[in-house]
From TrEMBL:
InterPro entries: Homeodomain-like_sf, HTH-type_TetR-like_transc_reg, HTH_TetR, Tet_transcr_reg_TetR-rel_C_sf, Tscrpt_reg_YcdC_C. GO terms for molecular function: DNA-binding transcription factor activity; transcription cis-regulatory region binding. PANTHER family: HTH-TYPE TRANSCRIPTIONAL REGULATOR RUTR (PTHR30055). Coiled coil: none annotated. This is Transcriptional regulator RutR of pyrimidine catabolism (TetR family). Gene3D superfamilies: Homeodomain-like, Tetracycline Repressor, domain 2. It comes from Celeribacter marinus. GO terms for biological process: negative regulation of DNA-templated transcription.
Length: 204
């Protein structure tokens, strides 16, 4: 869509409809498995109409990834070096679990991209994400060195938090098949479990 003209309300709505439809398609099929035809059908638009707003599948995917990365990193940014260490990390765990609960499609979109080798976001991983993880790993190391946390590898701690929270979005079908929860009750149970586990693991 031309960038030099202000968008009308209908154009804004159609752009949002396309991105929402693409999120469904990409989160189910990954980047390689998704097609513009699928996205157009999901959005209820013709393919030529879709291409008026976004010139390619890559442009749609990149738009979703840019928004996702900004939102996905916010909980990690919120870890406060001046806060109480165990509380800061447990709060991060619970924020990540809340995101898995509230944004499962976004989590699966990210997971699919990583499984395929991160071809469209490797630049962001190697730059923005790595920089932030290095910064927070240094904070965790300082907390360990001052005796406020039980010794642990800060990078593997962060990786474990990603694994134990995003699992509830990325492997939702498996979880529901095994424990058949009523509604979203398993998230409440997971919240209690993860809170207890990380407190016991990290408290000196």
């Amino acid at each position: 869509m031309p960038e030099n003209k202000p968008r009308t309300r209908i154009q804004k709505r159609n752009s949002e409809t396309i991105l929402d439809a693409a999120l469904d398609v990409f989160s189910r099929n990954g980047f390689r498995g998704a097609t513009l035809d699928q996205i157009a059908k999901e959005a209820g638009l013709s393919k030529p109409n879709l291409l008026y707003y976004f010139p390619s599948k890559v442009a749609i995917h990149r738009g979703l990834i840019d928004t996702l990365m900004a939102n996905w990193l916010d909980p990690l940014r919120e870890i406060d070096a001046d806060g109480e260490p165990v509380e800061e990390i447990v709060a991060y765990v619970l924020r990540k679990l809340d995101m898995a609960r509230e944004y499962p499609r976004e989590s699966r979109l990210f997971a699919n991209e990583i499984v395929q080798g991160a071809p469209n976001i490797m630049d962001k991983i190697e730059d923005e994400l790595k920089t932030l993880v290095d910064e927070k790993a240094a904070v965790i190391t300082q907390w360990i060195d001052t005796g406020h946390l039980r010794p642990t590898d800060p990078y593997h701690l962060i990786f474990s938090i990603w694994a134990t929270t995003q699992h509830y979005a990325d492997f939702d079908a498996q979880i529901r098949a095994i424990i058949t929860p009523v509604g979203e009750t398993h998230f409440d149970d997971a919240r209690l479990f993860l809170d207890t586990m990380y407190r016991r693991m990290l408290t000196p």
